[in-house]
Design a protein that fits this description.
6 helices, mainly alpha
Length: 129
């Protein structure tokens, strides 16, 4: 089971580093959202972009400018809930580069290694309402 999860995570990480197409997109987006970049596939495995959407991670709708660990109804790690982080360009880029390095004790264990792919995802997250 653990090996299967590691293989799946490795494949998602490779997908996140794949060449990006402008405005390549996904389904089920919130109103006014731009199309999800290919690197967002690694996020979409756990996170919804719809307000109140389900997933093993919290919804990313309205994440821009929100204090980390405060979306009602999601059981955040104590470490993230007490982090004081407010999601903006800098904090999201740092988070996506290495969540565990940024907030030891968080539940999110992997990120997006490619800087350009992270920028695409951060730009997309800004559009989610």
């Amino acid at each position: 089971m653990r090996r299967t999860c590691l293989v799946a995570l490795a494949l998602l990480a490779l997908a996140a580093c794949a060449p990006r197409k402008p405005d390549a997109g996904g389904e089920g987006q919130t109103s006014g959202a731009s199309k999800a970049p290919p690197a967002f596939a690694i996020c979409a495995g756990c996170h919804s972009v719809r307000p109140g959407g389900g997933g093993s991670g919290p919804s990313l709708a309205g994440i821009w400018g929100r204090k980390a660990g405060t979306l009602p109804g999601y059981p955040y790690s104590e470490a993230l809930a007490k982090s004081g982080i407010v999601w903006d360009d800098k904090s999201l880029d740092r988070w996506l580069a290495g969540p565990i390095q940024m907030v030891p004790g968080t539940k999110m264990v992997f990120g997006i290694p490619d800087e350009g792919a992270r920028k695409d995802v951060v730009d997309y997250l800004k559009t989610l309402k």
